Amino acid sequence: MYKAKRWSYQRVLLVFILTIAVVPATLLSGWLLYELRHTAIYGAEQSLLWRTRNAATDIKQLLMDHVNKLASLGKDNTLAIAPSNIIFTEQAYKKMQGFHSETPLFDTLMLFDDSGVLVEATPMRAMRLSSLALRDEINFYTDSFRIESINSPAVVLLEDPLLAKNLPSMRNQVHVRAIDYSVAIIIPLVIRKDKIVNPLKLTGVLVGLVSMEQLLERVKPSTPEIAKNIYMNFSFGDKKTLMENNSELPPTLMHASTELTVDFFDYTHGNSLHLDVQENLAPHLSEVNKTMIFLLSLVAVFIAASLLITRIAANYLTTPIKQIRAMTRSFAKGDYTQRRVEGNFREFIDLAELMTKMGQKIDSHIREIEQKRKDAEQASAYKTAFLANMSHEIRTPMNAIVGLSHLTLDTPLNDKQRKYVTNINNASHSLLGIINDILDYSKIEAGRLEIESTPFDLTEITDNLFGIFHFQAHDKGLAFSMNISPNVPSRLLGDPMRLKQILINLLGNALKFTESGKIILGIRSLSQPDDPMISLEFNVKDTGIGIEDAQLEQLFKPFTQADVSTTRKYGGTGLGLSICKKLVELMGGHIQIKSTPGKGSEFIFTANFQADVNQEKSSNSLVPDLQLDIMREHLSGLNVLLVEDNTINQMVAKELLESVNVNVSISGDGKQALDALHKSTFDMILMDIQMPVMDGFEATRRIRDAQNEIPIIALTANATKDDKEECIRVGMDDYLSKPIKTEELYRKVFMYRPEQKESHKAEANASQ
């Protein structure tokens, strides 16, 4: 089964507090950082756009101012006449030179005639310049010139690296590209003619050259730190300057551009002025980055402080819980002493007080239960002692009844007397069976019923059962048979007495409740030949009255039978099947019943045994089939000391032994037995247990302390396993339960006769 993972309350509390404190703070910090960066970038972009527009306006205004100034110069007749009259060239040069000194933005002033030939220039070195691009623009301008456009000068962007390179302002510039640009302002030069038609004549053009670098530098920020991060591109019409080296551009750039309309005569390229500005974003983000680092540091400090505070708070909050947990663990160990919970939490203090009260009540109940358990154990001990005493007290007179009835049956009797004595004998055996059932059930209740493991022969048990029930079934007109499978082993290790008890009970019930038909005992093995554990299945089948289905569930409960009429008609205590069920379970098996009312019943049970690897017959079965005359021959002449305080039991045992020619001496208690041993020699002792003056245990201990190895067989009315084990522990060789069975008495005496004991010693020495 899947076991759910358990979480620590302190850890869950810690995670919970951190979640509601740190996570929102972290998210808020992240949002603030994003907004801060976004705002900084947006502000920088807006500032750049504003500055770009201002710069474009400044450039436009600057160009317009210089166009107007150059146009004013172009209206001078000296400059207009000079291209066609060499006399005026020197005056034109002086005026141009004076103008150039007043307007330093112009790098060069040039005077061309109407065919595009350079007439004059200032500074003088410009006379050596040869610009095809400029000449083409001038030729195109003069060819396209119309009188109505006299007040519309032209502003063009020239692509002439050689020209730009020789301009004074373009020298030693590190950002100039291979393709460089300059702005040419072309002013038409005209003279008036005394004609009504075409009164104006174009004599040449006045050209002012402005380097693009100088033009853009005029609108760059004055602060060097800001200016070095500005990258400008300028276009006029469809011509565009690229003043900066793209390979040197930083990766973080923001872009702004603007476009203005220029009211100049631009006959080829349109009249739009476009300024594109790029600025490095990094300087604008430097302060933001510092703020972000500072804010992240604050967040880290906040998280660390939150962790520390949360752990302290969690420890503070969970301390009462830990104390209550320690209290419950103490309760689990049985310690219910009063404890206090430290802290100021009312709920935990109340809970601790309630648990303390509960612990006190539990402790009180446990003490009561313990006292009741002791009382119950004492009562059980009293009951056990009472049952043992009652067993002794009942078995002692039963021994006399069974023994004397048996002896009486061996005397000459008429038929009526024999019938009476036989009924007495049968009734005594029935009473003995009831007593044994009651004693066994008391052992079951006390949990003291145990199964022994001794070697036995299953064939002996089945033969004995056949001998018992064959004749009883025959007397009722029933057929009794056994069906034993060939694979059932004969020699086993287990408890033969309990197995026989189960089978006698089941066969006895079958015999009792069957009026006609047959009874079958079946045995088969459920194990394989190599299995160390042998499982046998027993079934007892009859053709009796059967049992109703509703009554089957009650069948194995104590003190119950199928119905009340069964008890009235057939008798019984109702303990037999309950005891059988417990014995079967102790043997590792189970019992079940199949029954059809009016047709019969079948009891099936299994039991586990071990194989008897020794395969030698036990001492209890050395002479199972000896006839009484053969036994009499081996027992004749033995000297047996009978230690018994009850005169009737003395008489019974003495008569039984003397009937097989055993010499019997009687002592009334253990002390008399010790005295008798000092005076005479005996082959064995039959020792009662409960006697006045000195009991059988003490007498046996003293005999063994004197190094006397004479066989001692206990005659005990205490039939419990503990009593039997105590007999062996104090030094007795064997035991016989009262009432004494004649065949069992003879068998025990035969087993421990002197010559049999010597043969056992010889076999033991030989094996060593």
Q: How would you characterize this protein structure?
A:
There is one protein chain. The chain is α+β, with helices and mostly antiparallel strands and 768 residues long. The chain has 3 domains: 39-286, Beta-Lactamase; 450-621, 2-Layer Sandwich (Heat Shock Protein 90), CATH 3.30.565; 624-768, Rossmann fold (3-Layer(aba) Sandwich). The chain has 22 helices and 21 strands. Strands 10, 11, 12, 13, 14, 15 and 16 form a 7-stranded mixed beta sheet that branches. It has a 5-stranded antiparallel beta sheet with strand order 2-1-5-4-3, with helices on both faces. The chain has a 5-stranded parallel beta sheet with strand order 18-17-19-20-21, with helices on both faces. Helix 17 (647-658) links the parallel strand 17 (639-643) and strand 18 (663-667). 28% of the residues are buried. Residues 167-179, 243-247, 265-269, 567-571, 618-626 and 763-768 have low confidence and may be disordered.
Topology of this protein?
Blueprint: H1 9-74, H2 77-81, H3 89-102, E1 108-113, E2 118-122, H4 132-144, E3 154-159, H5 161-166, E4 181-192, E5 200-211, H6 212-219, H7 224-227, E6 230-236, E7 239-240, E8 253-261, E9 272-280, H8 282-332, H9 346-409, H10 415-446, E10 454-457, H11 458-475, E11 479-484, E12 491-494, H12 496-513, E13 518-525, E14 533-542, H13 549-552, H14 564-570, H15 576-586, E15 591-596, E16 600-611, H16 628-635, E17 639-643, H17 647-658, E18 663-667, H18 670-679, E19 684-688, H19 696-705, E20 712-716, H20 721-730, E21 734-737, H21 742-751, H22 754-767
Parallel strand pairs: 11-13, 17-18, 17-19, 19-20, 20-21
Antiparallel strand pairs: 1-2, 1-5, 3-4, 4-5, 6-7, 6-9, 8-9, 10-12, 12-16, 13-14, 14-16, 15-16
Helix pairs in contact: 1-6, 1-8, 8-9, 9-10, 9-17, 10-15, 11-12, 12-15, 18-19
